[in-house]
Amino acid sequence: MNYIYDLSRIVQWTRAQLHWLADWAGTSVFWADGLGTLIVMFVLFAFCASVVMVLVYAERKIAGHMQARLGPMRVGWHGVLQVIADTIKLILKETEIPNRADRPLYRAAPYVVFVSGFLALIALPMDKNLVPVQLNVGLIYMIAIGTPGVIGILMAGWSSGNKYSLLGGMRSAAQMISYEIPLVLSLLGAVMLAKSLDLHTLVEAQKIPFVVYQPVAFFIFLISAVAETNRNPFDIPEAESELTAGFHTEYGGIRFAYFFLAEYVNMFVLSALGATVFLGGWQGPFLPGWCWYLIKTGAILFVFIWFRWTYPRLRADQLMDLSWKVLTPLAFINILVTGLILVLM
Amino acid sequence: MEQIGSYTTIFIALGVGVFCLAAGIFVSWLVRPMNPTPLKMEPYECGEPAIGPARVKFRTSFYLFALVFVIFDVEVVFLFPWAVVFQDLGLFAFIEMVIFIFILLLGLAYAWRKGALRWR
Q: Residue B28 and residue A90: Cα distance in Å, rounded?
């Protein structure tokens, strides 16, 4: 591994400095590690924010070129500063809480939605030695911590005091819980192969990426992940033509920005989970691990964006049918077939 | 981080996430204009004055989906520990799980037949 490109060395170095500092100040190592964790989390938050900025720009550019347009071109070279300009605009915007809103819930909802995505992100192994939080039940943690996002969306929908918001929130929740079942079941196949719930072990078990053994599961995962993030062709909750903007109709300015942020963070988290569980995570030749992690995640993200600009929106009943009557039975069959082959071998 | 447990780290992350968002809202509060008018505070219903309360009654099919979801989610939690160890437990555990999944699928078929999965 190339010395300079190994990010985990930076972490180790910082930790050593902090320990030295604790030694010098005469406090215990515990506080040094606590401070270190705090720094790591702030860095990860910055990572989150920058990933979202890159994603938004990429999405707009890809969308533009897929439709034979150029996308953002005005702010900066080829519009690279467009996202920053938009962020500043959103911060400077006036945002009022509507008079029919349930104010505490209205205020709390963006936090719940974003933090659930952020907490899922920190459990993902980015490199061999670069795992912000190592958990032996990492996969279950990822699934469990993502679920409060649904509650956040329901909170936003209900508290806004707007019919569009309420309907959007309910639809969103119904869709997200429906697609969570096939999503979770598709991950089971990989767990059976790796005999572990630890994401780090899952990656190391993939001498050959699991997508080779579990193509059906990967397929189910991909579709469910797109539906989980409420994106086209499954964007019924935010169908502009019928529900204005779904659950965040009444949100504006910085709070709207947080929902936007959370949506893209969730997209990144699910792509990264797919890359980790099915595509071999940070494993790969020549390049350092975190590069492979980002390349594989980016590939899945590109497919997400590609979907959005290719397929028309599904009807609500087709959407529910696809989850419960196609994907869920298929995922169960996939588990049984995988189990049968593994037992017989 | 040997000194700090994984779950403490998660709580630190929770704190950082909430802090950063709150800081953003604070900064925005400092710089954004604030002049609420009664019309501005009205809920948005495409320019029309809002009719009736926003928390309208709606279909029970949402509730049915939620029920089916809860059942399946609980079952899936049982599947995870099995998936980790079933290769060591051998054929017996596998057959048992086949029966379990079969009962699950039977439940799905029942909900399907009863129309709980139909979106109206």
A: 9
